[in-house]
Amino acid sequence: MGHRKIRNLVLAGLMAAGTMALSGTADAAGASDAMLANTCAGCHGTNGVSGGPAIPSIAGMKKEILFSMMQQFKDQSRPSTIMGRIAKGYSEGELHQIAAFFEKQKWVNTTAATDAAMAAKGAKLHKSKKCKGCHEENGATQDSEENMFRMAGQWPGSLYLMMKNYQAHDYPNAPKKMIKRLKKLSDADLHALANFYASQK
Ligand code: HEC
Ligand code: HEC
Fold first, then answer.
1. How far is residue 66's CA from residue 194's CA, in Å, rounded to a whole number?
2. Is any ligand 1 atom within 6 A of the Cβ of residue 81?
3. Which of 135, 138, 191, 195 to mutate to test the pocket of ligand 2 (most atoms within 8 A of CB)?
4. Rounded to whole angstroms, how far apart are CA atoms 56 and 154?
5. Ligand nearest to the backbone CA of 47
6. Residues 135-145: pLDDT tens digits?
7. Does any domain span residue 77?
8. What does the pLDDT look like over 118-141, one tens digit per residue?
9. Which of 70, 103, 136 represents a domain boundary (last residue)?
10. In terms of Cα–Cα distance, which of 79, 83, 52 is closest to 170?
11. Do both 45 and 82 map to the same domain?
12. Closest CA to ligand 1's atom 38
C-alpha cells in the first residue's frame, strides 16, 4: 500500500474516531486506568490491539516507553498527525495511569497477510543494514531506555509509515545511526522491511 493511501486511511479513521476520543477526556479527573485508556481504543483497538492497517498496536508496551512517547508527542519532539493533540489532553498523572494499563495488556500479532518474497528481502536488509544490532530477536525487543518498541508482529502499514516519518521529519531523540541508514533506503526496501518485521510471529 502506498504512503499516500495509508495516510488517507489514517485521516479517515481520525475523522471518525477523533471527535469521540477527544471529548472523552474532558471529565477524566479521578477516572480509573481502564476508563482513561478506553479513549485510545477508538483508534488503537480494544486493549491496544489495533485493527490496522496504519495504526500501531500498543498492547504490552513498557510503561516507561508509552509515557515518554506521550510526553514527546506533547512537546512535539515526536512528529505526529494526531497524537500531539491527543497527548495534550492528559496530565502527567493520567499518562502514568494509561501507561500502566497498556503495559498489562497482552501483545497480539497482526492478522495482516505478509508477502513471503518481500519478507525474505526484508530479512536480508535487517542484517545487511545492521538493524539487527539494535532491534534484536528479529524486532521483538523493547528497550525502555531508548523508547524502542516491538516491531515483530506489528501492522506492516504502520511500520512502513513510521520509517517514512523517520526519513521525512526530525526525530531529535532517535539514534542518528538509524536515521542515517533509513534515509538511504528506497520505498521498496521499506516495504520489504515492514513485511519482514510484521511476519515475525
Ligand atoms: C484518533 C485516533 C487515535 C487516538 C484516539 C489515539 N491514537 Fe495513538 N496513534 C494514532 C496514530 C495515527 C499514530 C501514529 C502517529 C501519528 O501520526 O499521530 C499513533 C501513535 C501512537 C503511539 C506510538 C506508537 C509507536 O510504536 O511509535 C502511541 C504510544 C500512542 N499512539 C498512544 C496512544 C494513547 C495512549 C492514546 C489514548 C490516550 C492514543 N494513542 C489515542 C492514532 C490515535
Ligand atoms: C543504534 C540502534 C538502532 C539501529 C541501528 C536501528 N534502530 Fe530502529 N530504533 C532504535 C531506537 C532506539 C528506536 C526508538 C526511537 C524513537 O523513535 O525514539 C527505534 C525505532 C524504530 C522503529 C519504530 C518502532 C516503533 O514502534 O516506534 C522502526 C520501524 C525502526 N526503528 C526500524 C529500523 C530499521 C529498519 C533499521 C535498520 C535500517 C533500524 N531501525 C536500525 C534503534 C536502532
1. 21
2. yes
3. 135
4. 7
5. 1
6. 999 999 999 99
7. yes
8. 999 999 999 999 999 999 999 999
9. 103
10. 79
11. yes
12. 40
| 51 and 92 part of one domain | yes
Which residue's C-alpha comes closest to atom 7 of ligand 2?
A: 178
Query: Cell 485493527 appears where?
Result: 51
**Per-residue pLDDT for the chain (201 aa), expressed as one digit of tens each?**
455 555 555 655 555 444 444 444 444 457 899 999 999 999 999 999 999 999 999 999 999 999 999 999 999 999 999 999 999 999 999 999 999 999 999 999 999 999 999 999 999 999 999 999 999 999 999 999 999 999 999 999 999 999 999 999 999 999 999 999 999 999 999 999 999 999 998
Go through 177-187 and write b for each residue having 16 or more CB atoms within 10 A of its CB, e for each that does not: ebeeebeebee
Query: Which residues constitute the domain of residue 128?
Result: 116-199
In angstroms, the Cα distances linking 120 to 90, 97, 149, 190 are: 42, 40, 22, 13
The verdict on whether omega for the bond into residue 56 sits within 30 degrees of 0, i.e. cis, is no
Residue 38: give its domain's CATH number.
1.10.760.10
Q: For residue 15, what are the contacts with CB-CB under 8 A and spacing of at least 6?
A: none
Q: How far is the CA of 103 from the centre of ligand 1 (A)?
A: 15
Question: Using an 8 Å Cβ cutoff, are 187 and 118 in contact?
Answer: no
Closest atom, ligand 1, to C-alpha of 84: 18
Measuring from atom 32 of ligand 2, which residue has the nearest CA?
163
Residues 13 and 99 both lie in one domain: yes
